[in-house]
Design brief:
Blueprint lengths: L3 E3 L2 E5 L5 H9 L7 E6 L12 E9 L2 E15 L2 E13 L7 H16 L6 E4 L6 H9 L25 E3 L4 H8 L9 E2 L3 H8 L3 E6 L2 E7 L5 E7 L1 H13 L16 E8 L2 H6 L1
Parallel strand pairs: 6-7
Antiparallel strand pairs: 1-2, 2-4, 3-12, 4-5, 5-6, 5-9, 8-10, 10-11, 11-13
GO molecular function: acyltransferase activity, transferring groups other than amino-acyl groups
Organism: Mesotoga infera
Protein name: GNAT family N-acetyltransferase
């Protein structure tokens, strides 16, 4: 795609040569709210491998990147039927150009509309922290509206001995993963219909299956790929953090400010009873 000019703003596909600049912008652009989060990644393009199709678009002015956005295209199961969805992610603005958000965003929206068209997909979606007001306003400007608010739970690392009754499989094949997801298609939305994402996870050896009697959990190890840090906390949470570091640190690992944190994402979690779930 040739550079498109909108005033003095150009929109183009990002290339691997832009990686370092995009990572720098990401690290300087925290996700705001009660907890400010900043990403620590080595490859800005890493998330694209989980989509059937995808690309990163950037807006630049005088050879300096102003902002960027990622686009992932995939087939999803919605209401029991296959739908083509477009997922927008990695929306970042260079802190030096905060006052130009409206301008570069308009340019990218126009280019996306030209590229994708209204008939090439069934819907578009994105996710954002509920208290990240700035990002929500940007998405609203792009025509998005809030359809649901989901709760995500973070479980800290406990300094305890391993539970002997829990077993885990480190090497999983694609067939095993698909067998776990197949029964869910009738009851859950936004399940992947394609296998590209799972193929990438299996190839990288990042999936773990934990099992105990009466419960199981499929986990994606994102450490080193989607690490993050906390750069700022609300006054109440900051006070709790300082208190916890002094009282709970012998039992639970309390992260420090700006510390690089690794995480695992629980993709599937099923149990027969609460006791089994707690063990897993």
């Amino acid at each position: 795609m040739e550079n498109k000019k909108a005033g003095n703003i150009h929109v183009r596909f990002a290339t691997i040569d832009d990686n370092d600049k995009l990572l720098k912008i990401e690290r300087e652009s925290a996700q705001e709210g009660n907890i400010w989060l900043v990403a620590f990644r080595e490859d800005f393009f890493g998330r694209l491998k989980y989509f059937e199709e995808g690309f990163i678009m950037i807006a630049e002015d005088a050879y300096d990147i102003i902002g960027c956005i990622g686009v992932g295209i995939e087939d999803l199961i919605v209401n029991g039927e296959s739908r083509k969805g477009i997922y927008l992610f990695g929306l970042r603005t260079n802190p030096k150009y905060r006052l130009k958000v409206a301008r570069w965003l308009k340019s990218i929206i126009q280019e996306l509309q030209r590229l994708l068209g209204p008939t090439d997909f069934d819907f578009g979606y994105a996710s954002v922290k509920a208290d990240n007001v700035a990002s929500k306003k940007i998405l609203e400007h792009m025509g998005f509206s809030t359809t649901a608010t989901l709760d995500f739970y973070a479980c800290p690392v406990r300094k305890t001995r391993n539970e002997k009754s829990v077993f885990f499989e480190r090497e999983l094949d694609l067939e095993t993963i698909l067998d776990l997801y197949k029964p869910l298609e009738k009851d859950y939305d936004f399940l992947l219909q394609g296998t590209k994402a799972f193929e990438s996870m299996v190839a990288a050896g990042r999936l773990r299956l934990f099992k105990t009697e009466g419960a199981s959990a499929l986990v994606l190890d994102t450490s080193g790929e989607q690490d993050f840090g906390i750069t700022r906390l609300s006054k109440g949470l900051r006070a709790f953090q300082l208190l916890a570091q002094g009282t709970l640190s012998p039992l639970v690992r309390i992260p420090r400010m700006n510390e690089r944190l690794r995480s695992w994402d629980v993709l599937l979690f099923g149990w027969d009873d609460i006791r089994s779930a707690r063990k897993t």
